[in-house]
Amino acid sequence: MSSAELSRRSFLRALSVTGAAALLGGCFAPLYGDPQVVTGGRNAQAALRDLEIPEIPGRNGVVLRNELIYLTQGGGGRAASPTHTLRVSLRIDTVPLVLNTAAGRPSAQAVTLVGDYTITPIGERQPIHRGSTFASASFDRTSQRLASDRAVIEAQERAAKSLADSIVTQVAGWYATRSR
User: Fold this and answer.
1) Please, are residues 141 and 109 in contact by the beta-carbon 8 Å criterion?
2) CA dist., res. 174 & res. 131, Å (int)
């Protein structure tokens, strides 16, 4: 093969890849896209604003609920006229990562929060969507008890905020792809 034939083949391959990318580029719709701006788009952010989020038990539940309200309502407040309820049940698990053999205690641990959620129309009992996600955060244990206790609390708060972000992303994706 000559170098001219190779360069021609490379040029045709690049041209076909560029053409395919241009054709598929019209299929992209941003998750939070405004339907007035993006034709055929769905406004997931507007649907998120219509979610009512009931209380979630426990300290981590309070942090999770506050973050969910912040993320879905665009900065705070409650839904003015909710159409759906987002219920979340929360499970917490702490796992030792590194064991200090001299002290016989873990020196590093990870906390994992698992959130199972359902979306139910207001006034109905049957959920129309279910999902589950998790978030983890690690922390160091020290010989100072109060410092270790505070490290656990901060790790749980980090995991709760990460979990809220994951739940909102999954719910927004579901709203954006569900049939109208």
Assistant:
1) yes
2) 10
- Who has greater pLDDT, 27 or 167? 167
Pairing of strands 129-140, 105-121: antiparallel
**Distant-in-sequence, close-in-space partners of 173: CB < 8 Å, separation ≥ 6:** 31, 44
Cα separation values, 144 from 111, 152, 168, Å: 19, 13, 37
Residue 108 in contact with residue 100, Cβ under 8 Å? no
Could you give the CA distance from residue 100 to residue 105 in angstroms, rounded to a whole number?
A: 5
Task: State the pTM of this model.
Answer: 0.74
Task: Give me the residue spans of the domains in the chain.
Answer: 31-177
Domain 31-177 has CATH 3.30.160.150: yes
Q: Is the dihedral of CA 102, 108, 110, 111 positive or negative?
A: positive
Tens-digit pLDDT profile for residues 74-90: 776 777 788 899 999 99
Q: In the 8-state DSSP scheme, what is residue 141?
A: -
d(CA 52, CA 79): 6
